[in-house]
Amino acid sequence: MRNPPWARDELILALDLYFRNNLTQMDKTNDEVIKLSKILNSLHIHSSIPDETLFRNPNGVTMKLANFMRFDPKSHGSGLARGGKLEEQIWNEFANRPDYLRKVAQSIIDNGSIRESEILDDEEEGFSEGTVLFRKHKVIERNRKIVNEVKSKALAEGNLRCVVCKFDFFKVYGEVGYGYIECHHTVPVSEYTSNMKTKAKDLALVCSNCHRMLHRRRPWLTIDSLQNLISQDEH
């Protein structure tokens, strides 16, 4: 069996290395290539790795860097022609934003210990910054202690409703909706670190529909931008 195709997270890390180093020195003996190979092997992204000896080894990393060259105007079309469509997507999304790419790559490295079994969600596949940061985002949103703290405060103040559309589950559904609301973490995923602490002020109370809409567009919509979309529709 073949090893799994490169995931979005892995390609983001490879593209970051592509821009940070002199490609003429990027071979399987290069220290940065070897370092990236080890990082890729430490990420908990793939559920099955049939051949661990070949999985994201330094030679494979070098070939992936060469794949990116075919999109680079500076390389004049050189590089390895064979590659997946996802490489071009990653290039188009991040090549003109090297500073953001660097932040996202570092954040993926910092949060790479989150395992696949910890969280599953049908939105994960379309998340532009990759699986690792999406899972980190969802783990934060499901942190029972801080979420309950935010919800309890709003409930005590009689303000447990969606900050975007003002939907109140209790008013609409009665007793079955009492105390129910979802939380959205508003800190950009590029700023996630391994030891970051979730603060109450970074969580926004939202209804299920608005939460989905906040996650639907890439990059994610902000609370204000979604409120503006609703206001425009009303007028």
Average predicted local confidence, pLDDT: 87
Q: How much beta, percentage-wise?
A: under 5%
Given the structure, what is the number of helices? Answer: 10
Secondary structure tally: strands: 2
**Largest sheet: number of strands, sense, barrel closure:** 2 strands, antiparallel
Percentage of residues in helical conformation: 40-55%
Spatial strand arrangement across the major sheet = 1-2
Low-confidence stretches: none
Task: Tell me the radius of gyration.
Answer: 21 Å
Span between termini: 56 Å
Kindly name the structural category. Answer: mainly alpha
Helix-strand pattern: HHHHHHHHEEHH
Question: Please, how many domains?
Answer: 2
The best one-word shape is elongated
Protein name: 5-methylcytosine-specific restriction enzyme A
Organism: Desulfosporosinus hippei DSM 8344
GO molecular function, one term: endonuclease activity
Domain HNH: 162-217
Q: Main traits of this protein?
A:
235 residues; mainly alpha; 2 domains; two-stranded antiparallel sheet; 10 helices; 2 strands; elongated; HNH; HNH_nuc; 5-methylcytosine-specific restriction enzyme A
Could you characterize what this model shows?
- This protein is mainly alpha-helical and 235 residues long.
- The protein folds into two domains: 8-113, no CATH class; 143-234.
- Helix content is 47%, strand content 3%.
- It contains ten helices and two strands, in the order H-H-H-H-H-H-H-H-E-E-H-H.
- The protein has helices at residues 8-20, 31-42, 58-69, 85-94, 98-110, 131-141, 144-156, 169-173, 208-216, 223-234, and strands at residues 182-185, 203-206.
- The chain has a two-stranded antiparallel sheet with strand order 1-2.
- The longest helix has 13 residues, at 8-20.
- It is elongated and about 65 Å long.
- The model has no long low-confidence stretch (mean pLDDT 87).
- This is 5-methylcytosine-specific restriction enzyme A.
- InterPro entries: HNH, HNH_nuc.
- One of its GO terms (molecular function) is nucleic acid binding.
- Residues 162-217 form the HNH domain.
